[in-house]
């Protein structure tokens, strides 16, 4: 996969996700044998590692589109697509933004933030009913994104590879026809 994707970042991202996955798998195993995983702190621990995995993937996506000279919005709309006409990139972006900001978004000053509402709206489209207000939003989002595959952050890499190929095509199109990609 690293020969298809931006070699400066994908190798580091893959290693980072694999390291986080060691914790996610260990925590998942402990959850399966725990009498009360919430009281044992296991669900919160899993959420922590998964949330930072989304932030790492978002960082890769931002670095890639910036390196290719693209605005933020166009690459977020590119396939692969999920349900409700939502893209994988939008879901990752919402998950990462949720994780980075969720603690402050429940303060009075941020209660009506457009950034907050956009993130919640995106997460709600993924059939995570009230997810931003419920427990374990990032864990639930990962389950939605990887489907029947192994519950692991590295399972996001094939969809990320597809997104990269589409971003690369958009970048090539922008070089030949800039007005079609400005947005």
Proportion in helices: 55-70%
Could you describe the largest sheet, including whether it forms a barrel? none
What is the number of helical segments per DSSP (H or I, 4+ residues)?
Answer: 7
Low-confidence stretches: none
- Alpha-carbon distance between the two ends: 29 Å
Count the strands? 0
Choose one word for the global shape. Answer: globular
**Element order: H for helix, E for strand:** HHHHHHH
Total individual domains: 1
- The structural class is mainly alpha
Q: What does the radius of gyration come to?
A: 17 Å
Rounded mean pLDDT is 85
Give the amount of beta strand, in percent: under 5%
Brief summary of the model shown:
The protein has 183 residues and is mainly alpha-helical. The protein contains 7 helices and no strands.
Structure description:
- The chain is mainly α.
- The protein has one domain.
- It contains 7 helices and no strands.
- The chain is globular, with a radius of gyration of 17 Å.
- It starts with 9 loop residues before the first helix and ends in a 7-residue tail after the last helix.
- The mean pLDDT is 85.
Describe the structure using short key phrases:
single chain; 183 residues; mainly alpha; globular
Detail the topology: elements first, then pairings.
Blueprint: H1 10-33, H2 42-67, H3 73-76, H4 88-101, H5 114-125, H6 137-146, H7 157-176
Helix pairs in contact: 1-2, 2-4, 2-6, 2-7, 4-5, 4-6
